[in-house]
Structure formats: C-alpha cells, structure tokens
Amino acid sequence: MSSTYGPFAQKNSVRPALPAACSLLICLSLFAVGCRSGDPAGPGEEERVYAVTAAEAVLEEVGKQLELTGELAPLRQVVVVPPLPGRVIEIKVAEGDPVFKGQLLIRMDSTQQELQLKQAQIAVEAGRVEIEKLEYLVEQGAVAEQVLRGARAELAQGEAQLDLARYAYDVTFLKSPLAGIVGYIWAKEGELVGNSQVVLVMNLDKVLVQLAVDEAQLVHLAPDMAVQVEVPAIGGIPRGGQVSVIGQVAVPGSRSFPVQIEVENTAGDLKPGMFARVLVQGQSRRAIMVPGSALRESEGRACLFVVSNNRVAERVVETGLRQDGKVEITAGLHQGERYVVRVPAGMADRSAVEISEGE
Q1: Whole-angstrom Cα distance, residue 259 to residue 229?
Q2: Pairing mode, strands 352-357 and 49-56
Q3: What mean pLDDT value characterizes the chain?
C-alpha cells in the first residue's frame, strides 16, 4: 500500500508532465520564428523602399521583321588526318592557300613503305612467273593440278600484300579531299604524327549562318525560306540567304533550336567566325512587349514584377517573340497593368516601392 500512495508515488506522477510542457513551449517558439521569417521586415526593422520606374503594359505592333543573330561557318570543311603514323617531311601549302581536290598538302616519310612496296612487287612478279611454268608442266603432265592450285593461292595472297603495301605508300602523300582553301595547319615539319589532325581544308563558295533560335521564334521559319543576312564586319550590306536546316531537337540545357542559313560567298569576303544578323520578314500583329530588363529569367522560367498600391507582386509569365531588345509576353501580364521596367537588386515579392512612370 505504501508503494501506491506514499511520497515516492507522488514524485513519479509529476515527472512525465515536465517534459511535455517543455516540448509545447519549444514548438510554439519555433512556429513563431517561422512566421517572422517571411515578413518583409522584422520587428524594429525599417522596411526598405525601392525606387523603381514603372510602365504600363500596352499592345504594340510586332512581327514585321524578326532579327536573329549568329556566326558564320564553312558550308563544307574537312580535317585531314593521316591514316597511318609517320614523320612529316614536307608541308606543301600555307594557311589561306587555295587548293584543288587531290592536291598534295603534306608529304610524309615513305622510306619504309617504299621498300615494302618493292618487296611485294618482286614477290608477285616471281609468283606470276612460277604460275606460267607450272601451267606448262601441268599441260605436259609433269606436275599435278593440285600443285598449280596451291601456287595460284600463294599468288593471290601476294597480290593482296601488294595492295596493302601500295596503300601504305600512297597515304604518305596527304592530299586535299575537296577544293577550297587551307584554313589551318597543325603539323610541323620533322615531327611525328599519329591519329591526329594535321590540316583543315574549307570550301567557302557558300557559308552557313549558325543560329540558336528560341522556340517561340521558330514558327516564323521554314525550310528553303528566303531571308536577308547582314555582316557588320564587311559593311552590313544585306545579301540573300536561304534556310537550309531547322533542328528538331533543342540545344541541351536550353529552349533554343539549331538553325542554319546558307549564303552565297562568290566574292570570298565572308569569313568563318564573323558575326551575322539574319532578318526574317513576317506578318505583323499586336502583342504586349516589355523591355528585357523587366524580366528575371532562370532555368527556363521568366518573372516580372507587377506594381499595385506601392508594392510589387512577382509574377511568372510566358514569353514569345524577341525583337529590338523587347520580349513578347504571351501570358501572365494584362493590358493596362503596370510593371517594373528595371528590377533593382534585392527586390522580392511584396517589396515596397516608390514609383516613377516610364517612358
């Protein structure tokens, strides 16, 4: 009985209550801290007010002319690699030289290959003489037909060795695989080269403008479509081009697709690596356009800040055509709403702002 109602029993009954009370207080304090972390300013802190320029979303005429930018590249180019390792004896061309198909570019050391070729030629000639003798002896009945068949098999093997030796000798003379110009020479006279690039040959009768076109702009292009190409480095005079390739798979890590434009280069003034501007004529329409500075873009997500009652709301929007430094907003912003033109660093959803009207 004393163990149930005695003083020890009272102490045991109080102990469980203390940890429960402490846990409740800890949970409440953590909950309160979590609520405060989302406030624009904590207790006793003065809320920052951002000075921003705002503009009203209005409809503009777009799509008359789409401007894309890219880089020139050769329509055809080949990197020459020696099929067999060897030492470079003589380089017959210089960078920028015009070359014709089959022209000798580099002569490799062919001493060993030449000896092997002569050896194979001698073996084949001896084999053919032997065949003639055996054929006569078979006709006379002095040699069995089986001996002649064996000699012919040996001759076939010798002829195969001759073909290999001739190939090994021929490839010591590295020739141009196409007509064009020498773009770059990696090889040096006297050095050993293996399975490595030695000469770049480019055909520049036509060049390509290589582009990465945003998915929203892709609808304005079609295969074989005529476009205008401007290259500022040579005066920016427009010249005709034609869409040759529209990629079916986006560039990894982006929403852009590879596009190629072919341009005639009969004057030879267009050089690989030059910056190019492509102008595409399209049908005009009206759409909401905002400056690129109004958007925050990251990992395929675009946001802008809509202004209301001296505060901003961060809003996810969908974008479309990009033209003259502006971006089309296809969803998420309505005509008549005001938005921040240039987003200052640190501004977030629900920030307080002091507004001046944009242009």
Answers
A1: 14
A2: parallel
A3: 85
Say if pTM beats, i.e. exceeds, 0.85: no
Lowest mean pLDDT among 64-68, 111-115, 244-248, 260-264: 64-68
Amino acid 256 reads S
Pairing relationship of beta strands 59-62 and 285-291 according to DSSP bridges? antiparallel
pLDDT at residue 62, rounded to an integer: 77
Q: For helices 145-170 and 111-140, what crossing angle results, to 10°?
A: 160
Place of tokens 């434009």: 261
b/e for 276-313, b at 16 or more Cβ within 10 A?
bbbebebeeeebbbbbeebbeeeeeebbbbbbeeeebe
CA-to-CA distance for 300 and 67, rounded, in angstroms?
Answer: 21
pLDDT digits (tens, 9 = 90+) for 235-253: 888 999 999 999 999 999 8
3-state helix, strand, coil in the chain (%, to 5): 25, 40, 35
Of 272, 265, 273, 100, the closest CA to residue 181 belongs to 100
Summary count for the chain: helices (H), strands (E): 5, 21
- As a whole number of angstroms, the distance between CA 153 and CA 131 comes to 10
- In which residue are the tokens 């989302």 written? 38
pLDDT of 145 > 70? The answer is yes
Across 181-190, 289-298, 341-350, the highest mean pLDDT is recorded for 181-190
